[in-house]
Design goal:
single chain, alpha/beta, TIM Barrel, 9-stranded mixed sheet, two-stranded antiparallel sheet, 9 helices, 11 strands, globular, binds SN-glycerol-3-phosphate, binds magnesium ion
Amino acid sequence: MKLTLPRWFAHRGGGSLAPENTLAGIRLAARLGYRAVEFDVMLSGDGTPVLIHDETLERTTNGVGRVCDMPDSELFALDAGHGERIPRLAEAAALCRQYGLLANVEIKPAGGFERQTAETVAHQARALWHGAEVMPLLSSFSLEAVEVARDLAPDLPRGLLFEQIPADWQQEMARLRAVTLHCNARHLDDDTLAALKDAAVPALCYTVNDPEQAKKLFERGVSSLFTDRLDLFASETSAYKGLHLDG
Ligand code: G3P
Ligand code: MG
């Protein structure tokens, strides 16, 4: 397993400059020089993995109802903003490979679909990135989903995702053989950060849209940040070679 972590990840596809979790967003991130992009993946009513954040369609599309109830024929006819469609994971993967972007695939199961979502994403991710130079980083708030990814796609790097890092993070990292730890920037305390550093575990923080906050987090030793404000940090994306992990 080899993983190079860029400093900046475009959050939810393209952040706030393009409709979130769309191919237009990923293209924009690449055009602005980003080397990594995070997006959320959930199953449609037909079990197709698609890029969307919420369990319901209302906030980001002109549709109504639950993503997990929506057949593909209706889901892919929806407008996800500026005429963009909800992308399949397969389309996002192809774009990331084309641009050489590191994809952080956040497995975002609708409640009750943890295992099924992780199984589908793990299988597809293995096939979609087969032979790729840059492998995707799979992560999830659902530890069950990460466990499934570990078992079905052991060669793909995994990250644990927490709102706030729990006391037993080290056991969970070991159990799930995860290589990165992702958390909300607001809840990362210095003691935990020091322990992460001692364990050589990179900390990745979401969601940082303020340059002062970003500067402080990097000074404190955070490895990478997720941002919606692609415009603010584009100039920092190319200067830094990235943190290389080998294991
Ligand atoms: O994966 C990091 C971040 O995206 C987690 O929060 O709610 O934006 O998916 P959310
Ligand atoms: Mg996310």
